[in-house]
């Protein structure tokens, strides 16, 4: 099978910066299969990038190399790292991007990307995705041993993101993302909801809006109904059946969400 390289960035769809990274990678490893996971991560939103990686990358064939560039600290002393987590491989800034993946599974191998011989000859202070990470990722896909990238390290920078809190018969969280359907994704995980009833004794509140019960599918309620359910990413979400909750409710990321029973 041809080696697979995936790309996740906050550059935006159609960005010339994405094209430049692909050009570098394919110049070094022409047999690569390059897959775009997403380039619509909100600008500099490390937590959103971490959610993309934890939900998408584990589904790829073992040994896939995932290159992620959400890098507000580019040009600073933040590290660039190579990581093996589960059966997947990653190259990205060490700024919390791998924080959710590392919580689910302890990394098997971690190295800094510090040996400049595997970078492009001229490195911009503002585009390490093109000049450092893309050439390193391509060389890894071509068989470069990760041990040659730089010293082994013991751990990763954790993700600095708000987490839901469960106290008694109440869970407090917030909306962390609006997905492409307009559903409101929260930081209340399925694990936090363990033992919580799924019947109408449960109230889910978001801003001035309220719904009763936690359901299994969107079709469990009629069209235009506000519904709460655990989505495919393993988090509680709020949706308007057959419409956009983001538009209908006018809710943004950061809006508090409370579950009580």
TrEMBL record:
Protein name (Swiss-Prot/TrEMBL): Adenosyl-chloride synthase
Keywords per UniProt: S-adenosyl-L-methionine, Transferase
Name of the gene encoding the protein in the UniProt record: salL
Keyword Coiled coil on entry: no
Ranges where the S-adenosyl-l-methionine hydroxide adenosyltransferase C-terminal domain occurs: 173-257
E.C. number(s) listed in UniProt: 2.5.1.94
Domain S-adenosyl-l-methionine hydroxide adenosyltransferase N-terminal: from-to ranges: 5-150
Protein origin, superkingdom: Bacteria
Entry-linked Gene3D superfamilies: Bacterial fluorinating enzyme like, S-adenosyl-l-methionine hydroxide adenosyltransferase, N-terminal
Cross-referenced Pfam families: SAM_HAT_C (PF20257), SAM_HAT_N (PF01887)
SUPFAM superfamilies hit by this protein: Bacterial fluorinating enzyme, C-terminal domain, Bacterial fluorinating enzyme, N-terminal domain
Family: Belongs to the SAM hydrolase / SAM-dependent halogenase family.
Molecular function GO terms recorded: transferase activity
